[in-house]
Design the sequence.
C-alpha cells in the first residue's frame, strides 16, 4: 500500500463536483462523425468508444480501409475532450493479419500521429467465450485508455475493489495502516475479470455486441465525475446512457442504427426503480442550446489555480444570490455551480 493509501488521502487527479439536479441525455440516430463535428471544443470529459471491429460481423462492420475511416474520428478527439478528459477505446489485437485493421492499428496511429497520451491498456478478461481448435480460444478484449493531457481525472476511490477477508484482517492488524484506507479496498488493476453478457443475461436489450454495465460503470466512475459529460458515438445498446443516468453524469450518444432508440427504452425500464438523479432524454437536440454544454466548453480549461479559485468563489456568491444570467433550463443554478467548482 502506498503513502496515499496508508494515510487515506485523495490523489490530486480527482476533482470537486456538485451533484446535478437533473442530468441531460442527448440521443442521435446519426453518423458518428457528423455528431462529433457538431461538438464544441473541450466540451467532453469522457468518450466511451466501442467502434466496429472490422470482422464483418454485420453490415456496419465492413470496411475497405479501417484505419483511414478511424482516422476521421480519432483526429477530432483531442479537440472535443476537456483538458482533464479521456477516451476509452475497446477492441482486440488478435485479428490484425487477417483484416488489416484493429485496435493495434489504431494505437500505432495514435502513438505516431496524435497528442493523446496512453495511460493504460486494460485487459478485459472473461471466462465465457467461443471454443477454438486451431488457436488458443480468446478470452480477453482490450480497452485502451488515453488521456488528453497529463492533468487527467482518475477517481481511484470510486472503483476500488474490496480486499479478501484474510488480507483485510491482516491489514487491519497492521498498526502502520489506517483502518479507513483498508476499508476503501484496493486498486482493481489493469486486468478486469468481468463476464461477457450471455444470450439470456438480464441486462441484454437485443444488441449483438452489448457491453456489460460493470465494465462501462468502472470506466465512467474512474474517468468522469457527476455533472460531467460522457460521449458515446458508437452507442449500440445505449448502455453508456443507462450508466450515466445511474451515476449522475450527462451523456451524448449516437448510433447510425435507429434500433438504438428501442434499446435505450429497454435500458431505462431496467433502472426505473433505482434512480438517484432526475434525468431527461432529449432526442436530436440542438447541442448549442443546452446550458451545461456551453458551460463546460467555456470553463473547462482554466489553467491557473488562482483563476480557478476566483471562479469558485464567484460561483459560490452567484449561487447564494440565486441569479445566474445567460443560461436557461430547470437546473441552471446547480449546473453553473457544479461546473465552476470542478475547476479547482
Ligand atoms: C461494437 S458496437 C457498440 C456496442 C455498444 N458499445 C454496446 O455496448 O451496446 C458498434 C456500433 O457502432 C455502430 N456504428 C457503426 N458505424 C457507425 C457510424 N459510422 N456512425 C454511428 N454508428 C456507427 C453500429 O451500428 C453498432 O451499433
Sequence:
Amino acid at each position: 500500500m502506498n503513502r496515499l493509501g496508508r494515510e487515506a488521502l485523495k490523489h490530486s487527479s480527482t476533482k470537486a463536483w456538485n451533484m446535478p439536479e437533473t442530468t441531460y441525455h442527448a440521443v442521435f440516430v446519426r453518423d458518428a462523425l457528423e455528431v462529433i463535428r457538431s461538438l464544441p471544443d473541450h466540451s467532453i470529459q469522457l468518450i466511451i468508444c466501442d467502434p466496429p471491429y472490422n470482422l464483418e460481423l454485420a453490415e456496419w462492420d465492413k470496411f475497405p480501409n479501417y484505419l483511414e475511416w478511424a482516422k476521421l474520428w480519432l483526429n477530432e478527439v483531442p479537440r472535443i475532450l476537456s483538458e482533464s478528459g479521456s477516451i476509452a477505446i475497446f477492441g482486440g489485437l488478435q485479428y490484425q493479419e487477417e483484416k488489416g485493421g484493429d485496435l493495434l492499428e489504431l494505437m500505432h496511429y495514435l502513438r505516431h500521429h496524435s497528442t493523446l497520451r496512453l495511460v493504460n491498456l486494460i485487459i478485459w478478461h472473461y471466462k465465457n467465450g467461443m471454443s477454438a481448435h486451431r488457436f488458443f480460444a480468446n478470452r480477453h478484449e482490450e480497452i485502451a485508455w488515453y488521456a488528453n493531457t497529463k492533468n487527467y481525472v482518475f477517481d481511484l476511490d470510486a472503483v476500488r475493489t474490496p480486499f479478501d477477508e484474510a488480507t483485510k484482517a491482516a491489514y487491519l492488524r497492521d498498526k502502520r495502516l489506517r483502518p479507513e484506507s483498508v476499508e476503501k479496498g484496493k486498486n482493481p488493476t489493469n486486468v478486469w475479470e468481468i463476464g461477457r453478457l450471455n444470450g439470456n443475461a438480464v441486462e441484454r436489450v437485443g444488441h449483438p455486441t452489448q457491453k456489460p454495465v460493470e465494465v462501462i460503470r468502472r470506466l465512467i466512475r474512474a474517468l468522469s465525475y457527476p455533472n460531467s459529460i460522457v460521449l458515446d458515438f458508437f452507442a449500440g445498446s445505449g448502455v453508456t446512457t443507462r450508466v450515466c443516468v445511474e451515476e449522475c453524469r450527462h451523456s451524448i450518444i449516437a448510433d447510425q442504427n435507429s434500433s438504438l432508440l428501442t434499446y435505450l427504452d429497454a435500458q431505462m425500464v431496467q433502472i426505473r426503480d433505482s434512480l438517484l438523479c432526475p434525468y431527461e432524454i432529449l432526442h436530436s437536440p440542438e447541442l448549442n442550446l443546452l446550458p451545461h454544454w456551453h458551460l463546460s466548453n467555456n470553463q473547462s480549461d482554466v489553467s491557473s489555480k488562482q483563476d480557478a479559485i476566483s471562479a469558485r468563489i464567484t460561483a459560490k456568491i452567484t449561487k447564494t444570490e440565486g441569479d445566474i444570467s445567460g443560461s436557461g433550463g430547470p437546473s441552471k443554478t446547480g449546473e453553473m455551480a457544479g461546473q465552476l467548482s470542478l475547476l479547482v
About this structure: The beta strands are 23-29, 44-49, 81-91, 117-125, 140-147, 191-193, 229-232, 250-255, 279-283.
